Amino acid sequence: MPTHFLSIDTDSVEPEEGAPAPDRLISGAPKFRTWNVEEAEGGLYAGIWEATPGKWRIVYDEWEFCHILSGVSVVTEDGGEARTVKAGDSFVLRPGFKGSWEVLETTRKEYVIRL
């Protein structure tokens, strides 16, 4: 019988490795690992993302809920204030968000993305 319960578990999925696009890199040499454990119809994704220190430009066309599991990052919206996020913090980045993401200490987050 199929289950409708899915654990967000990094042991169940091989991580995708990545990095910011070269034209978006501001500083450092950040590396990403993404464990995408759910991909549902209509462009819904959920999983865990991790990044090493560095800074890059971000542009969001999608809606994303984030919950920081570990580390420290600074998310800055163009023309807005810099927000430091750390373990326990939750937030939403809405479509149209433009700015930068700077990882000060390797950061791991849970995410839910809706395209």
TrEMBL record:
Pfam families: Cupin_3
CDD domains (UniProt xref): cupin_TM1112-like
InterPro entries hit by this protein: RmlC-like_jellyroll, RmlC_Cupin_sf, UGlyAH_Cupin_dom
PANTHER family named in the record: (S)-UREIDOGLYCINE AMINOHYDROLASE CUPIN DOMAIN-CONTAINING PROTEIN, CYTOPLASMIC PROTEIN-RELATED
Domain of life the protein comes from: Bacteria
Region called Disordered, residue ranges: 1-26
Lineage: Bacteria, Pseudomonadati, Pseudomonadota, Alphaproteobacteria, Hyphomicrobiales
Name of protein: (S)-ureidoglycine aminohydrolase cupin domain-containing protein
Ranges where the (S)-ureidoglycine aminohydrolase cupin domain occurs: 39-111
